[in-house]
Amino acid sequence: MVSSDDEISVLMNKKMKDLQRKFNALIELKKINKPIILSDSNFDIEKSKYPLLLVDFWASWCGPCKVVLPIIEQLAQEYTGKVVFAKINVDENPILSKKFGIQSIPTMILFKYGEVIDIIIGALPRGQIESKLRNYLEK
Question: 27 phi and psi, to 5 degrees?
Answer without folding.
Answer: -65, -45
